[in-house]
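Run log // design_07
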């Protein structure tokens, strides 16, 4: 066992998740007090993984107010096209992280058209149409709104990952999107971004088109070719410009065979490979709380992290792994569950678990919007998971240590070297 003698101290997440055990056992106990004995083992001799210093990330989406699930419309004015950028609570919530990575994307990103300086066509938002892919007609990002967003993110110190439309130019045939990516519109936006000196952390290509896809899919070989196209465009436009943005893909659900082929075909193209997590099922599920508090259910996601880690280890790629979007329960989550205190047991466990498998960044769906936002969609006030995210960001350092709790499966232990200088013995 390590000697608990670290220059920067040790931060142990077990203090948070132990609350789950106390709550569950005390509720069914005959005695007033229940004592659970266990042991935490931390090997402090060397790190088993390393995360980014700005590991915590959140997403912002394109969904308009008309996006409804199970009869409930939970998005309000939280879209990239209409969220109130002048709200002080919103601004301060982002500034508190200094910096916070924000991934701009989601289902409708593959239906976004970008306004260009030489295009006189009207730039209109999404309109509902249940007969088309994803239930909405194409929407447009006005350059004036991109200016507002870019200035807002600069002023709040955010690091931006922008998800580009990967379906541009493709034809959907029998559930598959075929043909090469038409990069012209995306290239125009990138050139405008550089012209305006807006700093981008990364450009990401596509959303949930990997494997069997959501709505439609793109073959791994074609996706690799399209990603190389994006890489070449970025290299050309950013020549002589620093810092250069990363290239990220595919922003989809993990499929071992698809991901392996894609990674093998992009060894010098891809900087970061992203996958999405909604392992709790649909937001309408009435048993979400039971799943969140069931250790055996939570353990199931570890296999995804493990498989992706093994693929990266056995490939010649230098790409690292991110969770690019994770809301737990899909279709906007579940009110009073995925935006309530109980969800922190799932969220914190995900942060700890993903770190162990060398995931560099974890993007929570969403910063605001739906029923799984870190902030309330209407008031912008923080939901409980906002404080979980901020606490992690301030305490948990980059070096991940091996930690194990024995005594009950209802307590999890994750340990990192502390972020700030702390004397610990």
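design_07 sequence
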């Amino acid at each position: 066992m390590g000697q608990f003698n670290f220059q920067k101290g040790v931060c142990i997440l077990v203090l948070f998740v132990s609350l789950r055990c106390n709550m569950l056992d005390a509720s069914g106990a005959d005695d007033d007090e229940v004592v659970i004995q266990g042991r935490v083992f931390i090997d402090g001799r060397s790190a088993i993984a390393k995360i980014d210093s700005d590991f915590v990330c959140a997403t912002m989406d394109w969904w308009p107010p008309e996006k409804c699930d199970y009869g409930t419309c939970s998005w309000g004015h939280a879209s990239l096209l209409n969220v109130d950028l002048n709200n002080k609570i919103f601004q301060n919530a982002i500034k508190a992280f200094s910096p916070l990575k924000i991934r701009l994307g989601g289902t409708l990103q593959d239906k976004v058209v970008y306004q260009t300086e030489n295009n006189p066509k009207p730039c209109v938002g999404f309109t509902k149409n249940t007969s088309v892919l994803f239930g909405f007609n194409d929407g447009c990002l006005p350059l004036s709104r991109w200016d507002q967003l870019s200035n807002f993110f600069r002023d709040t110190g955010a690091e931006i990952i922008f998800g580009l439309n990967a379906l541009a130019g493709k034809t959907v045939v029998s559930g598959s999107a075929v043909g090469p990516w038409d990069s012209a519109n995306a290239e125009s936006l990138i050139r405008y971004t550089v012209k305006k000196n807006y700093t981008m952390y990364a450009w990401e290509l596509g959303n949930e088109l990997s494997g069997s896809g959501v709505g439609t899919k793109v073959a791994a070989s074609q996706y690799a070719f399209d990603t190389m196209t994006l890489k070449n465009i970025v290299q050309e436009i950013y020549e002589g410009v620093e810092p250069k943005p990363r290239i990220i893909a595919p922003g989809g659900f993990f499929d071992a065979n698809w991901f392996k082929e894609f990674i093998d075909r992009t060894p010098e193209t891809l900087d970061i490979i992203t996958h999405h997590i909604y392992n709790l099922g649909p937001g309408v599920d009435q048993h979400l709380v039971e799943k969140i508090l069931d250790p055996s259910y939570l353990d199931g996601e570890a296999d995804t992290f493990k498989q992706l880690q093994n693929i990266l280890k056995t490939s010649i790629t230098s790409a690292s792994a991110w969770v690019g979007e994770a809301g737990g329960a899909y279709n906007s989550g579940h009110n009073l569950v995925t935006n309530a205190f109980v969800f922190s047991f799932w969220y914190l466990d995900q942060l700890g678990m993903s770190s162990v498998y060398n995931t560099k960044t974890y993007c929570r769906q969403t910063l605001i919007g739906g029923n799984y936002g870190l902030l309330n969609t209407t008031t912008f006030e923080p939901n409980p998971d906002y404080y979980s995210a901020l606490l992690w960001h301030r305490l948990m350092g980059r070096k991940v240590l091996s930690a194990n709790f024995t005594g009950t499966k209802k307590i999890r232990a994750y340990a990192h070297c502390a972020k700030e200088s702390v004397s610990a013995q």
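The longest helix spans residues 220-237.
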